[in-house]
UniProtKB/TrEMBL annotation:
<dbReference type="InterPro" id="IPR009057">
    <property type="entry name" value="Homeodomain-like_sf"/>
</dbReference>
<protein>
    <submittedName>
        <fullName>TetR family transcriptional regulator</fullName>
    </submittedName>
</protein>
<dbReference type="Pfam" id="PF00440">
    <property type="entry name" value="TetR_N"/>
</dbReference>
<dbReference type="InterPro" id="IPR050624">
    <property type="entry name" value="HTH-type_Tx_Regulator"/>
</dbReference>
<keyword id="KW-0238">DNA-binding</keyword>
<feature type="domain" description="HTH tetR-type">
    <location>
        <begin position="8"/>
        <end position="68"/>
    </location>
</feature>
<feature type="DNA-binding region" description="H-T-H motif">
    <location>
        <begin position="31"/>
        <end position="50"/>
    </location>
</feature>
<dbReference type="InterPro" id="IPR001647">
    <property type="entry name" value="HTH_TetR"/>
</dbReference>
<dbReference type="GO" id="GO:0003677">
    <property type="term" value="F:DNA binding"/>
</dbReference>
């Protein structure tokens, strides 16, 4: 148990050092030596756990997702029965608490690998919930679950990128989530100020 605690502490120090240095200098300009010096940990210890700095960045994403998922699991049964907005609220609350780690991911550090991994994980989770909800409520989805999930996650990512880069956010996590909930329930047509959607919308044919 003591060794496990030492391992967790070491990994946390390396993770924190990397996040801080990447925010200051960018992923490409940070070396393993920079990370170990900042964390006051030997390079041999670093390589005991990670093959390179990219592996450490991947671990940052995995840790963020694991922490977030632990908060989302209790909400899954209710979410699979109806749209509550609670998972989105937990995402924004978690991002507020782990702001620096999220900023590293959302800035596309590591040539975008961290952001792609984060988006793919969140998309798979959302698609599963959407499909379960439709099955539980006996409805047929009108848009493919993965496409719908990517649209939903894309909205969240874009807002998180904007929100977390503000020194003093103009909106709270609760306010943003309420707006997203309203947008999801009422649609962009309504959000643009129109009273109701048109009866039928199809793409105009594109001349060849």
């Amino acid at each position: 148990m003591a060794e496990d605690r030492r391992t967790r502490r070491t990994k946390r120090l390396l993770r924190n050092a990397m996040v801080e240095l990447v925010l200051q200098n960018g992923f490409d300009n940070v070396t393993v030596e920079d990370i170990t010096e900042h964390a006051d940990i030997s390079r041999a210890t670093f390589y005991k756990y990670y093959r390179d700095k990219q592996a450490l960045l991947d671990q940052v994403v995995s840790d963020v997702h694991a922490e977030l998922q632990a908060r989302l699991v209790p909400l899954a049964p209710e979410s699979s029965r109806g749209f509550t907005g609670k998972p989105a609220l937990e995402l924004f609350r978690h991002a507020r608490e782990e702001r620096d780690a999220y900023r590293v991911i959302l800035r596309g550090e590591g040539h975008g690998t961290a952001l792609r991994k984060f988006v793919d994980i969140r998309t798979a989770s959302a698609a599963r919930i959407f499909a379960e909800r439709a099955a539980n409520l006996g409805v047929t989805m009108r848009i493919q679950p993965e496409l719908l999930a990517r649209a939903w996650v894309g909205e969240q990512v874009a807002i998180l990128q904007w929100w977390l880069e503000q020194d003093e956010p103009a909106m709270t996590a609760e306010e943003i989530t309420q707006m997203l909930l309203t947008l999801s329930l009422r649609g962009r047509y309504w959000a643009n100020g129109f009273d109701g959607p048109p009866d039928d919308v199809t793409l105009a044919p594109v001349p060849e």
